[in-house]
Amino acid sequence: MNTQPLAEFEVFPLYASSIPLDKLVNMDYLIKMTSNVLYMGLQIASPVLLATLGQDIILGVISKTAPQVNVFQLSFLFKPVFGAAIMVWILPMLINIITDYYQSYTNIF
């Protein structure tokens, strides 16, 4: 890739109908960075989502076996606490992955 700075009219031509994005942005790097962000978000969110799904299944079984317990109200108490506890438990395991991603993002320009 050319490392010289481009003149303004080369990047944004006066009478052009489109902007040449290939001169402005390295598309391969942008696609790689976007996919890494989505993958990192999936790694962080998936344990919480799976734990919440398991909690909903358990609360559904409790609701069927003991109908006098108001499980709907209990879920409002348990879900945020359980989700935060899972996040506190999972994030130390992902610290190395997250720092590697942030170090790779410093190479944008």
- Could you say which structural class the secondary elements and strand pairing correspond to? mainly alpha
Number of E strands: 0
> Major beta sheet, specifics?
none
**SSE pattern, N- to C-terminal:** HHHH
Structural domains: how many: 1
Number of helices: 4
Gross morphology: elongated
Mean pLDDT over the full residue set = 79
The amount of helix comes to over 70%
Radius of gyration over alpha carbons?
24 Å
Oligomer: single chain
Instruction: Give the N-terminus to C-terminus distance in angstroms.
Output: 11 Å
Low-pLDDT residue intervals, each spanning 5 or more residues: none
In what range is the share of β-strand residues? under 5%
Key traits:
single chain, 109 residues, mainly alpha, 4 helices, 0% strand, elongated
Q: Could you describe the 3D structure shown?
A:
By secondary structure, the chain is mostly helical. The chain has one domain (22-105). It contains 4 helices and no strands. The model has no long low-confidence stretch (mean pLDDT 79).
Write the layout of secondary structure elements.
Blueprint: H1 8-11, H2 21-24, H3 27-65, H4 71-105
Helix pairs in contact: 3-4
